Amino acid sequence: MVKNHEEKVEVSALFFDGRSSKAQAVTLTLSHGCVAVHDDQGILILEQGVALCHLAPPLGSAKVELKTSATAHCLLEPDSAAALAHFFPTRKGLLLVDFFERRWGLVTVALVGCLLFVWFFIATGIPFLARQAAYAMPSQAMTLLGSQTLAVLDEQFFSPSALPLEQQHQTHSLFQQVCQQLAVPSCQLELRQGNELGANAFALPSGQVVMTDELVILSQGQGDEGLQGVIAHELGHVTNRHALRHVIQHSGIFLLISTLTGDMGSLTSVAASLPMVLAESRYSRSFEDEADAFACSYFLDQGKSCAAYGELLMLATKGRNSDGLSRYFASHPPTSQRLEAFHALHNSTL
Questions:
Q1: Does residue 335 sit in the same domain as residue 231?
Q2: Which of 94, 128, 155 is the last residue of a domain?
Q3: For residue range 221-234, what is the model confidence (pLDDT) as tens digits?
Q4: CA 163, CA 12: separation in Å to the nearest integer?
């Protein structure tokens, strides 16, 4: 029962005095900043200032508690509690929550909205923030990440290069030539025997590019342009900081915030993740497409065709399953699609 006068509200409630578990039917009267509790005979049981009382937030159809003293409290029906809400200014905002809780349609819409927001944040927000974090990382941290990652790769996968010294020098010269043509400074080539990784190449966050002997040998017969394409592709990863962005994106919000706020301790987690990301070639398709476009643009700027690079891709994937260079292209788009993209980009410049 609710009686509402101009500045006075009376509601029915159950009263618990705090000394026993027995409930007592009472009438609550709120007027002029005071709460008065009367029994069914009209006898005053308790009187307290509104400021000293606490009205709990409503929760669906459950009874609402009004704390009237340190030990005593009343239980009210939701409608009765709603009639008292304007006496408790701090409770007004919770009425909106109660409004939604009572309407399953709105709850469903809110849930769908939350799921869409989470999807949008994962698909767009995290990649954007990861990009900002990767580009905000200082060069000293990038150098540290590169050295730690290379040390792990050397320990777990690689052996020193066994290429003839002359071939090593030629490969280093070719690498520096591509770096200069692309205006990508501070990059360094590291030659290694790939062993179980076979023909492969990795771009480290520090600007180091690790290339295996097997890849250099595989590129023979394609001229310099096949290997130039692979070098330009890896420099595309370096320029766009794909390795670091990939790890940050897939390491959760905690690592993302730690990196953005400059927590150097988070670099340990990044360094531990990078070797496996690189070894298993788990870049996203968008990163691979971006690196391929970078390599193709390099050839077009030089007035050359991407054909030799495309032939190396075909050679690398032809008749191979899960070993050798096919692992290097395992997460890449299908070779036919990559060649079509090269052809489309070439035609767009004509």
A1: yes
A2: 94
A3: 777 888 999 999 99
A4: 92
